[in-house]
Structures are given as C-alpha cells and as structure tokens.
C-alpha cells in the first residue's frame, strides 16, 4: 500500500514505542514524516530508519511555543501537512488515587489533553489547506475502568474533543479521530512479567504490539477512512467484549 505518497505527516512522541511504529508505517506507505519528540537524539535515530524521507524535530507537547515551532519547521521543510498523529504521552503516576490532589490532576490533564489541543491548533491551518486528518492516541482506560483516574479521565476527554472538532471542521474537509489502545508492549512496561500476565485478560491471548496501533492510526489517517470522523476506535485485542472468554 502507498496511501501516503506525496503526503506529509507530523508524528509526536515518535522517538519510541507506538509513535515510532507510526512514523515507520506512514513512511513505508510513502509519507514524508516529521519525527517529533522531546528526545531529539532518539528521534534522529528513527529518522535514520525511515530511509531518507523524514526530519527529526524537537517538540515538547507541554509547551505551546515548542509545538508551534516544531509544526512550523515541518511545513517549512516539506511545504505542506496532511496528517497529524498525536502519540506523545504517558501516565504520570501509576495507580494514583482519586485523592491525588489538584496538582496531579492538573499536570496529567495539561500533558494528555491540552498537549493534544496544542498539537491540533498548530496543525489545523495547514490541514485545512490539504483536507488532512488528525489521529489522537487515547487509551482503552478512557473507555473502561482500569485504574489511574487522572490518566483515564484525560484520555477520555480526547473522545469528546474529536467529536466536537469533527463537527466544527468537517465542512472544511479535515477529519479527527482517536485510537484507544489497550496494553501495548512498549518501554512503558518496564517489567516483561507484567505483559506476560496481562495476556490472560485478552480474548486474543496476547498484548498488543506498537505495529498493531500504528496500523489503526494509518487507516484512520488515510483515504480509506474518508467517511469516518469523530470516532474512538478501540484497538484492544477484544478486551471490551467482557469476561465471556474466561468462562469455560
Ligand atoms: N503502551 C501502552 O500500553 C499504551 C496503552 C494505551 C495508550 N497508550 C498511549 O500511547 C502513547 C504512546 O505510548 P508508548 O507506550 O508508545 O510510550 P513510549 O514511552 O514508548 O513513547 C512515548 C514517546 O513520547 C515522548 N514524549 C514524552 N513526553 C513528551 C512530551 N512532553 N512531548 C513530546 N514527546 C514526549 C517520549 O520521548 C517517547 O518517545 C501514549 O499517549 C500512551 O498514553 C499506551
């Protein structure tokens, strides 16, 4: 498939994990890719893997100035922008209780939700010019209760965001969607035994790989999803089917 031939993608959080896999997938399908990350040296390594059709850009999604500069550098280099994949993020505190305090709730919300808003706002004028697409990486914990309330709530807010953006900007031809992954084997899981144990909660009896999510991001960003906007697509190995697979 060459769904992104002649197109330009900006992928945040692209130095590692799901973002890296997304950058590789979009480039494999023809896109020129801006590999945007706080870790510039690691981003440069990903660019080296892309086969000459990318740039590394320093980008911290918690800073509007940083995001604006990264998107501007991308458009300056490639002359256009067709895809925003906002992947950067992580859970700032594991198993945080609901009593975490205002500061922790605010920090997670600023990172996860407002960080996505910063990326969308910087990219939008360029995406209107090309009739482009936005894909935000949410989480299945924004759909079902899996612990860590601030992270889950901030990810859930992304689904509301894309519904509203899809309605507001649909007439200009820009689409907005979320992918909501469940457990994906990335550096976010430091202990491989945890991933091994988690296999059992999935009907497909495995956790996800970054490439599983990258394929879904690429689908929603592509013309194959030309009539899909405002949705949250679970990418979750059957997790939300319920406990039926555990019953003999
Ligand atoms: N791994 C999972 O099980 C899982 C499940 C659901 C959702 N997610 C989501 O997927 C996304 C990617 O997670 P991952 O597991 O690939 O993690 P990862 O740690 O492998 O990659 C995250 C990337 O984001 C970058 N990053 C961190 N802070 C940043 C910032 N302020 N600005 C720009 N870049 C920043 C990191 O340098 C890194 O390259 C996150 O949004 C995460 O919440 C992950």
UniProtKB/TrEMBL annotation:
Extract the SUPFAM superfamilies matched here: NAD(P)-binding Rossmann-fold domains (SSF51735)
CDD domains this protein is in?
Answer: SDR_c
Q: Supply the alphabetized keyword list.
A: Oxidoreductase
Q: Which InterPro entries match?
A: NAD(P)-bd_dom_sf, SDR_fam
Query: Its Gene Ontology molecular function terms?
Result: oxidoreductase activity
Signal peptide start and end residues: none
| Family according to the record | Belongs to the short-chain dehydrogenases/reductases (SDR) family.
- Protein name per its UniProtKB record: NAD(P)-dependent dehydrogenase (Short-subunit alcohol dehydrogenase family)
UniProt lineage: Bacteria, Bacillati, Actinomycetota, Actinomycetes, Propionibacteriales
